[in-house]
């Protein structure tokens, strides 16, 4: 039996749901309760395994305090479509969105945002750049 691969758009929308949910400090269980669903259903939405319908997406946006358009920001262009320069820029940012969809990415982003001193922030960026170059070699 062939395993069904989630649609990239459903995966993107789901990852944006996860990003926002984590940023507001809400668990999958709490979001599920607010939607009248189980946390497992929320997991399936966030992974893109299950597609989120329009009315459900509106409900999620309301609960998480964003507009529906938030879930489509940074959407990578679909394969086989003509790409403009604007879409090329969006494709370049898809790896950032993918990173922010991970637990480590969100934790690192939150911690970095709490650093107020610009010099310290610059040193953190330099450190991470150095570490990434060492592991690439």
How would you sum up this structure, described in words?
It is a single chain. Helix content is 65%, strand content 0%. It is mainly α and 137 residues long. The termini are far apart. Residues 79-88 have low confidence and may be disordered.
Structure in a nutshell:
By secondary structure, the protein is an all-alpha fold. The chain has eight helices and no strands.
Question: What characteristics describe this protein?
Answer:
8 helices; 65% helix; 137 residues
Based on secondary structure, the structural category is mainly alpha
Strand content: under 5%
For the residues shown, what is the average pLDDT?
84
Low-confidence stretches: 79-88
Radius of gyration, whole Å: 17 Å
If helices are DSSP runs of H or I spanning 4 or more residues, what is the number of helices?
A: 8
Along the chain, the helix and strand elements come as: HHHHHHHH
Residues in helix, %: 55-70%
Instruction: Report, as a whole number of angstroms, the end-to-end distance.
Output: 40 Å
């Amino acid at each position: 039996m062939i395993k069904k691969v989630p649609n990239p758009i459903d995966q993107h929308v789901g990852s944006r749901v996860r990003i926002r949910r984590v940023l507001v400090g809400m668990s999958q269980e709490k979001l599920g309760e607010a939607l009248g669903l189980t946390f497992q259903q929320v997991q399936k939405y966030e992974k893109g395994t299950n597609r989120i319908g329009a009315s459900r997406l509106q409900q999620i946006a309301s609960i998480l305090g964003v507009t529906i358009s938030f879930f489509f920001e940074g959407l990578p262009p679909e394969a086989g479509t003509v790409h403009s320069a604007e879409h090329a820029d969006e494709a370049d940012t898809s790896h950032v969105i993918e990173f922010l969809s991970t637990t480590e990415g969100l934790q690192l982003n939150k911690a970095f945002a709490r650093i107020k001193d610009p010099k310290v922030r610059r040193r953190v960026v330099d450190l991470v750049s150095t570490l990434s170059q060492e592991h690439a070699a």
